[in-house]
Amino acid sequence: MDETLRQLGELLLGSVPTVILLTLLYVLYTVIVHKPLQRVLAERRSKTEGAVEKSRADIAAAEARTAEYEQRLREARAAVFRAQEARRQAVLQARANALNEARTKAQAQVQAAKQAIEQDRSAAEKNLPAAAQALAQEIMRRVLQPAGAGR
After folding, report:
1. Is residue 35 part of a domain?
2. What is the tally of structural domains in the chain?
3. What is the per-residue pLDDT for 81?
């Protein structure tokens, strides 16, 4: 058992430089590699999150511009529709005015024709007794005329 303990003690004594070197290596790794690496990773993470936030802000701004563009497009369409409606109303009004003017002219022509017919009727009524008298005399002359005298 003494021999085993002595061998164990020698092993422990031989492992002391290895433990010291391993501890030194761990400290050097931490100082030289791990901490700068953690710092770089933290910086990269913050930049990435910053870029993500900037991207979200850019997306929100783009959506706002898109909504504004769509609003202006709707307003422009409405303005075009109003202009078309105004032109349509103007055309309808012009058509109604032309129709009324044509009706007025037609009514004036009808009135003029009625007056001309009335004048012709009055003239015919005035001439009717004289024409009837002349016709009656002509009929009487022919009826009273001997049968072979007119040939």
Report:
1. yes
2. 1
3. 96
Backbone angles phi, psi at 89, to 5 degrees: -65, -40
Residue 149 lies in a domain: no
Q: What is the pLDDT of residues 129-149, one digit of tens each?
A: 888 888 888 888 888 887 666
pLDDT at 149: 60
Residue type, 26: Y
- 24 to each of 33, 116, 140, how far by Cα in Å? 13, 134, 166
Give the domain range for residue 49.
1-143
**What tokens were used for 120?**
């012709």
Helical residues (DSSP H) of the chain, grouped into ranges:
2-29, 35-144
Q: Is residue 1 in some structural domain?
A: yes
Look at the pTM and tell me if it is higher than 0.85.
no
Q: Convert the pLDDT of each residue in 2-29 to its tens digit.
A: 889 888 888 888 888 888 999 999 999 9
On whether residue 150 sits in a domain, the answer given is no
The one-letter amino acid code at 145 reads: Q
